[in-house]
Design a protein that fits this description.
Four copies of one chain form a homotetramer. By secondary structure, the first copy, chain A, is of the alpha+beta class. In chain A, 27% of the residues lie in helices and 36% in strands. In chain A, strand 3 (76-86) and strand 4 form a beta hairpin. The first copy, chain A, is elongated, with a radius of gyration of 16 Å. Chain A starts with 7 loop residues before the first strand and ends with a helix.
Chain lengths: 148, 148, 148, 148
């Protein structure tokens, strides 16, 4: 609950090819926006190298996304990304898409993942070094998260 | 729970451009597959004309998707689509992506929508003619749905 | 020029997620439509297995696409695909996107490719068994092609 | 040929969802990269507002793209965009995708467009104020362009 919490920020401007029939960003496109933001989150914390070296893969098992307000041509979006939960065998990343510079939420999502050991072909327990790595990532404060 | 329930079927073969870094169909692409299947579902039941004529729009407010098994190059997928729930102000479509000809579930999703009156700029109550239209669509039997 | 020439046909119906800002199928999306049609072309002639077995890859080096008429929501497109030219080190596939059941051309493209030997890391000469394989594919008659 | 020519720059980092079967950025995706860069080019020169106000649309009639080197996961691309030609009824934008910070060309494209008068439903002549607007944009020097 410290005041210095800061999620990772990714900015995207809505372009013509993001839109669909209704002139709104298409539902599927948001999942690309969220993936873009998660790669940025990963870049900022160096975990991709760790994963590649360890022969493990980040596998998404569930996405639960709320579409709260249509995003329109030319609007600037800011995606906030941070960890929400680290369980025993899975984790949850929470991502919020806002109109940049405002509190208007365009979409928000919980993205549940497992860490997969590609050699043993099985999900790994989130403990030891692996758990420590996720615990070093920015985590949504319990209170702030409830607001969504 | 009659035995003659039949969801709408949409078949898609996995192609090179559907895949990502891991050689699996990308998470975002499934939302396009699901949208494709919903348009097929709509085509089969003529509701698009009704919507256009009535000045109303189908707006998705939540997608909750489970990714259960990676889909690979050349695999044939069958998407089963039917209504799951018709609430007072929203509805839920349930969609299951299987390996065609098998019971292997690749992904399944609940897609929650509202019907939006574009003239009044507000979600409509799901009653009267509108509710009747949705009640005429195929609906997942309670039991079969639980299996997922 | 024989009357029994028949390109490969792939049918695609324009959906909401294919459209962009202008309510037209987006320029980039056509390249996915063309790729879809080439995979169908390949499926029909069994060459993918040959490629995989031989450790060779199909690599596109140029796409030259004309956008002739916007495609709109709900329109049914038919993509015609056949070989146009087999050179000494590259080949050209010509693809025409029409409104299904009409002669109206929506888009047409020349797609130039090389066959890449992934072991030697070099483009292969189009001769011997490789050339024979391409010569067995449907080829646009010189005259018909000029019409485009 | 002056030394102060500067195209518009757009930077894109290759992410997992950009890749396809071969682990390379997919052919279709480059057209989205080029569109992203053209919107940035437009943003920098304020022409979108002009277009919207004048009831005219920018319509692409041909894309001729060379794929010169596969782009891989994590690579940083820089897209250079400038005018190549202003004809009497059409124009050409030339775009070059390089590995950022190098002269390695990943792809380059000529994008031919017409300006469409949506009220008269016809392509406009590129003269008067319209031509002047395009002449104020950065233009590839004849010599530098030949290098591609």
């Amino acid at each position: 609950m410290s005041t210095d919490f800061q999620p990772h920020f990714t900015d995207i401007k809505v372009r013509g090819y993001h839109l669909d029939l209704y002139g709104h960003v298409n539902n599927a496109r948001y999942l690309e926006f969220l993936e873009e933001a998660r790669w940025g989150f990963t870049d900022s914390h160096g975990s991709l190298d760790y994963f590649t070296a360890a022969g493990i893969a980040f596998v998404i098992v569930n996405v639960n996304i709320n579409y709260r307000r249509a995003a329109l041509m030319g609007e600037e979006l800011r995606i906030e990304t941070a960890m929400k939960k680290i369980g025993s065998r899975s984790g949850v990343i929470h991502q919020v898409v806002k109109l940049k510079g405002t509190d208007t939420v365009v979409a928000d999502a919980d993205v549940t993942f497992v860490i997969f050991d590609t050699k043993r072909n099985a999900a790994m327990s989130m403990d030891g070094e692996l758990r420590a790595m996720f615990e070093r990532l920015p985590m949504w404060p319990a209170k702030e998260h409830k607001a969504h």
